[in-house]
Amino acid sequence: MLLHLRQPLPPGQNGFRPSRLPSGRARIHPDPQRNRTVHRDQAGPHGPQPLRRSGYGAILDSEVQEVDLATGELVFSWDILDHVDPTESEVPASDASSSGGVWDAYHMNSIDEGPHGEVLVSARNMWAAYDISRRTGRIRWQLGGKKSDFTFGPNADFYWQHDVRFRPEGRISMFDDGCCSQPDGTPEQQSHGLILNLNFARRRATVHKTYYHAPPLYSASQGNTQALPNGNQFIGWGQNSYYSEYAYPGNSQNNGSQSLLYDAKMPGSNISYRAFRNQWVGRPYYPPSAAARARGGHGVVYASWNGSTETRGWQLLAGPRPHSLRVVRGRVPRTGFETALATANRGPYFQVRALDAHGRGLGTSRVVTLTR
């Protein structure tokens, strides 16, 4: 008997995280901390041994949903327990005895959408990724695991993987943790970024590029491999505190410094599930700040706008009354966090205006008065 909620719960109540798709719909990701437990009768002779003794056990299930944000309609749903036999897991059911009686057989940890709407799901504890037909829910192919549809070339095998993504030209990428069933377990291999060529005619997976770290790292969980617009690859090392950028050619297991462009380590024991490099634009919701001081017979107005990434220069306005200000200094280049704008104008009222790279106004401070 399988007790399973079939009616989807509202996002935010079912342990899923939404992300917006270009179509205006939301793809719902499994939240590893809030996946549902599904209870299954394990009394049969083929049930997992530690659960078979009691005749009743629990499996941690994962489900993918796509929701139309405009209507709230559930347009796609796929439950891994309906399609993948949990006994294919690389995590033995006996692990349930040390995890509250719940067997984490799958541990779904990433989802991606392909160019034709197909869905790519990673199941860490299966050492496998699944390409799913959105129309039928059928698994079109499985990469890795005990029933892989592909054979593997040298160094193409992966273990405990995260962040499996479609790439152009029949490739996929991932972060191959290579480690471990437990945080202190024995690793299968070094952690690394991995891009695979998939030959669908021969059903063969071969290495296209790899990205190793020097010194070697063994991440027991988490991690990602991000494709940057210029072809570089950005690697988040998961349970290890590093994040790194590599030129596209990559490197080999014994030459982790090759192609390395940038390497950083977070302080202390800080880690990040994934790490990304993106073009970030900061537009503060609050106005710029200004302070005016008298210095040696002239005034200096200090301008800053904490969080603004687009400010390239400043205008200075001054006048005898708060509501009758005029520009007394045109475009003064921004210099660091705070820019000092000297002026012979006596004010005593001043204001600064932030300008972008094209001289357009971005925001204006409150009016301040000269203090001595």
Automatic annotation (TrEMBL):
InterPro entries: Arylsulfate_ST, ASST-like
Domain of life the protein comes from: Bacteria
Basic and acidic residues: bias regions: 28-43
Organism, as annotated: Streptomyces nigrescens
This protein's name: Arylsulfotransferase family protein
Region spans: Disordered: 1-54
